[in-house]
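User: I'll paste a sequence; please echo it back and then give the predicted structure.

Assistant: Echoing your sequence first, then the prediction.
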Amino acid sequence: MNKLLDFIQEMLHPEDSDGVFLFWAKELLGAMLILAFFWILSQLAVMALNKWGKKLASATATDLDDRLLHCIIPYIYRLFMTGGVYFAVRTLPLGEKLMLAASGLLYVILVTIIFTLVYHAMDELLKWYVAGQKELNSGAMARQMIPVVEKLASLFLLGTALIIILKHFNVDIFSLVTALGIGSLAIGMAAKDTLAHMISGFTLMVDRPFRIGDRIQLSGGQLGDVLDIGLRSTKIKTLDNQLLIIPNSDLCNTMLTNQAFPNSKVKGRINLGIGYNSDVDDVKKLLVKIALETEGVLAEPLPEAFFVSFGDSALNMSLFFWVEEYATLITITDRVNSRIISIFRQKTIEIPYPVKTVILEQHKN
């Protein structure tokens, strides 16, 4: 014990051993006062944010500021207390090496608190965005993007914090960044197809040519409902209940028709032929009447019938009508067709078969 006191006395250069205890008591008391001062500041800051900050946030139309304020308040206390510990430790005569170690540890803690605060604030911002998109009936796509954005943001924040900490300790980060760049280039060359699909997936999520649940038709004729938009591929459920998986890069470079955009209404078309002896105007009025009387056909826009062309054995007509949901188009088209054939038979309107006349000539030798 005496040797330890002698060592401390030599380090601090006091006049006697009793001065050692008095000296340390004064230094510790000063450090405690500094720590208490910062604790009082943290309590005042938290009280001010709880009282005045929440009042200001409640006065705004959006709840984003309320979310951010609720996220920030706990970290205000931690920041003040970390700063108080830092300044309190700086007042203690711990020696150069011990002081550097303590300062470095507190610096790492401070950087960690700040970047954790930024991450949680970003998380609240994304949750607020998803809630807003859900009200606009586009939350499914936003919910898919959130995990990807969170992972990328967390990796970026982690890398930034690591670089700041290494730079604080005078570590050469240029060589580290160079090595990471070369490694990323090598990985990118080896997985270029996968990266192309991932970039295309981001493009689909941002550009949004279709949403989950939309019915799309590809240029190859495939028709189905979008089940999932992933980073590598998009899954489509066809009308015969099969799963079609398409790489995102192929989907980005093909033409497609989105039947659900701008809304779910869709126009149906029925082509038929009538005999040359039929009254075209009466048939057009009858077709419109049949469509209007069929369940599921919209009265607005009004169904329309047209005399399209002269066929080889019939006058070609077309009936156009609208339905509310594209998913019901086949069923309603069946109803209209059934009513047309039934009423045409009742009114003896001819739907002629293709007729070819073959003339055989007999030649005499």
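The CA atoms of residues 203 and 252 lie 8 Å apart. Residues 2-182 form one domain.
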